[in-house]
Design a protein that fits this description.
two-stranded antiparallel sheet, elongated, mainly alpha, 241 residues
Length: 241
């Protein structure tokens, strides 16, 4: 059973997030949907969480192998250390490094094949990678399943560790390859969430990190040069997908 968050507007109920919008679009025109509705106690948590996931999802490229920049630096740093420790010439282990990275890419590509991207599947994967899962028995053995999130009863005590854990997973697997710092990525997600809600961006007095941070825009990035992130850039890229 799908769980949806809806916002009451002058035009009726509309999906609160992109994930909710995609779920609604799966229903046929004229189809009757039945459900029980409750007021969300802390809608701000829901919006902040899915803005962060939406940002990571937009940058995620399943066919790219998912070898973050920091991980590549660690691999190359270890190779240089071993070359120095064993008295080898610089670059002598490069063939081994390339083979190891290629294997990582193949292994991760097998887990995430180049098929249509799904926000729901991405959310499930990231939540599990963040450690918020339960083990279930299946005909194929024990599998991990993302824990259900009860937004209706969410409070600060429960939300903060969940957000931090899931953000860390997004940073480690996706965002670290596109943003210089975690603060930049968090500010970009916050800005994106503000844009999606149709609100004015926060003032620089309340968000100095957003004023100074430079964000990468995948829609207009050329080569390795980062272009400033903007919500309108994000919307343009999403519309062209």
């Amino acid at each position: 059973m799908a769980e949806l968050a809806l916002i009451r507007t002058a035009n009726g109920l509309v999906p609160a997030t992109e994930a909710d919008r995609e779920a609604v679009q799966k229903w046929r025109a004229g189809q009757v949907i039945h459900g029980k509705f409750t007021k969300m106690r802390n809608a701000k948590f829901h919006g902040k969480f899915f803005a962060m996931l939406d940002l990571a999802w937009e940058y995620w490229e399943p066919k790219g192998g998912l070898v973050p920049r920091q991980e590549m630096r660690g691999i190359h740093g270890l190779a240089r250390f071993l070359e120095q420790a064993t008295g080898r010439e610089p670059g002598m282990l490069q063939a081994g490094v390339d083979a190891y990275v290629a294997k990582l890419e193949r292994d991760r590509a097998e887990r995430f094949p180049a098929v249509d991207k799904s926000r729901e599947a991405f959310r499930e994967w990231v939540t599990i990678e963040a450690g918020h899962f339960e083990l279930v028995y299946t005909p194929e053995g024990v599998k991990k399943r993302a824990k259900s999130i009860s937004w209706a009863s969410m409070d600060d005590t429960a939300f903060e560790p969940l957000y931090r854990d899931v953000f860390n997973a997004c940073w480690r697997l996706v965002l670290s390859a596109h943003f210089e710092t975690e603060a930049d990525a968090m500010a970009a997600a916050d800005q994106l969430g503000t844009f999606a809600r149709g609100l004015s961006p926060r003032s620089s007095a309340t968000a100095p990190e957003a004023r100074n941070a430079q964000f990468a825009c995948p829609a207009f990035a050329t080569g390795t040069r980062r272009q400033p992130f903007s919500p309108t850039c994000h919307a343009a890229r999403r519309g062209s997908a």
